[in-house]
Specification:
By secondary structure, the protein is mainly alpha-helical. It folds into two domains: 266 residues, no CATH class; 70 residues, no CATH class. It has 20 helices and four strands. The strands form two sheets. The chain has a two-stranded antiparallel ribbon. Strands 2-3 form a two-stranded antiparallel sheet. Helix 9 runs parallel beside helix 18, helix 11 packs antiparallel against helix 17 and helix 19 crosses helix 20. The protein starts with a helix and ends with a helix.
Length: 452
């Protein structure tokens, strides 16, 4: 369909076509809606997990549940409208644990002050984006590391899915081991894996969404889903809304020494590179990276991410960031911001029934993550594995993302190794100055982490 044809489409379909360039990206409104539902279902666990984690910091659980839904809805809808990218956002895993267990419980920082730190880190993101530093970071990453990040995140998503399903479990002797496949959770997940895999090989549209829903129904039928809703209303959100303590961040209402600088650094650093890694992986999988290797509308994407963190802190949740689960929507055909908007609208609706998210068990969404993870390994064929200068950094990136449970760590190892090998080989150019600065920062980070 040509652009002129799109202009002639009447009604809402024509408006959607013009606003999101659906035909230009080889998609339809129906496909985008389906993709949005799929992304939402793979992300819905955050509505339960985030309140549970932040609740251990003394935050009111019901308020955090509402804030989580609101932050995810606001950020995803804003991303869809401003950047036309199928990238959904929500409070990030990992950073919420750092917020609760390290900042509040270990360091003794009150949770309103911790929310103030999240707010300041979001403002810092905006400054870094406005000055072009975040863009410099993205452009300093060589193309083969883009492919390695995508593959590493694929393994990461797959590993999370296997862990959620109980197929892979912790083992003190071997670190990880095979779980009890006869137990209800893993058995249900394997059913979903076979179902989604079978539908996928037959090219059934909506295979993942069908598989998630069917697996959930099977879980209900066999009594594998427990549901104990608690009293809840939207008024609960007032427990965290605008409760952040900015004065506390600057030591006006309390003195926490250099600890606050450390907190700001971690919030800023980890989210920065987690976001960049996710952004690269999802846009690459969606085929949105241009021929020049650059990501279209990068500034809008980065600004949206920063604004989302600021708004999320005011609502009452930890750092909001791009979600790797967005790849699930991309896998079923999502190519435009309409996918993100649909995901956001569903999170908005979830605000009214947040506790009911537990109706979808992890065993139902885990198979989708496993299959998406496998599909995301495709870009690894772009790495020149017979050339050590690309193979070594690429391998470190791919391996360290799932093994350290951190996208930021994988990027750190890959970029540092890339810089070191360029120095050893004597191929460093003047234009590589920012790459060397990044590598030095990563080395300093490793030293700091080792001394902590």
């Amino acid at each position: 369909m040509s652009h002129s044809d799109a202009m002639e489409i009447p009604g809402w379909k024509g408006r959607l076509e013009r606003r999101f360039s659906l035909s230009e990206r080889g998609t339809t409104a129906r496909t985008e809606v389906l993709a949005g539902f799929t992304t939402f279902l793979t992300m819905a666990y955050i509505v339960l997990v985030n309140p549970a984690i932040l609740g251990t910091a003394g935050m009111p659980v019901a308020a955090v549940a509402a804030a989580t839904c609101f932050a995810a809805a606001f950020a995803s809808i804003l991303m869809g409208f401003t950047s036309n990218t199928p990238l959904a956002l929500a409070p990030g895993m990992g950073l919420n644990a750092y917020f609760s267990f390290t900042v509040v419980q270990q360091m003794g920082i009150p949770w309103p002050v911790a929310l103030g730190c999240v707010f300041i880190s979001g403002v810092a993101f905006l400054v870094l984006t406005a000055t072009g530093i975040r863009q410099l970071i993205v452009h300093s990453i060589p193309p083969y590391l883009f492919a390695a990040v995508a593959g590493g995140i694929g393994l990461f998503i797959g590993f999370i899915g296997l862990k959620d399903a109980g197929i892979v479990v912790a083992n003190p002797a071997t670190i990880v081991a095979l779980g009890d496949l006869k137990s209800p959770g893993p058995a249900l997940a394997l059913f979903g894996l076979v179902l989604i895999g079978g539908l996928s090989v037959w090219n059934v549209r909506g295979a993942m969404l069908i598989g998630i829903v069917a697996t959930t129904l099977a879980g209900w039928v066999f009594g594998l889903v427990t549901f104990k809703p608690e009293p809840y209303s939207l008024q609960a959100m007032t427990g965290t809304l605008f409760q952040l303590d900015l004065k506390g961040v600057f030591g006006v209402s309390g003195s926490h020494g250099l600890g606050l600088l450390e907190i700001l650094f971690v919030f800023l650093f980890v989210d920065l590179f987690d976001n960049i890694g996710t952004l690269v992986a999802v846009t690459k999988r969606a085929g949105l990276i241009g021929p020049d290797g650059k990501i279209p509308r990068l500034n809008r994407i980065l600004v949206t991410d920063a604004v989302a963190t600021v708004v999320g802190s005011m609502a009452g949740t930890s750092t909001v960031t791009s979600y790797v689960e967005s790849a699930a929507g991309v896998q079923v055909g999502g190519r435009t911001g309409l996918t993100a908007i649909v995901t956001g609208v569903l999170f908005l609706a979830m605000m009214f029934v947040a506790p009911y998210a537990q109706l979808i068990p992890l065993a139902a969404t885990a198979p989708a993550l496993i299959i998406v993870g496998g599909m995301m390994c495709l870009p690894l064929i772009e790495v020149e594995w017979d050339d050590p200068i690309s193979a070594i950094p690429a391998f470190l990136t791919v391996a360290m993302i799932p093994l350290t449970f951190s996208i930021a760590n994988g990027l750190a190892f890959g970029i540092t190794a890339h810089a070191i090998l360029k120095i050893v080989r004597g191929t460093v150019k003047k234009t590589d100055w920012f790459l060397l600065v990044l590598a030095l920062l990563f080395v300093a980070r490793f030293i700091w982490m080792g001394a902590a």
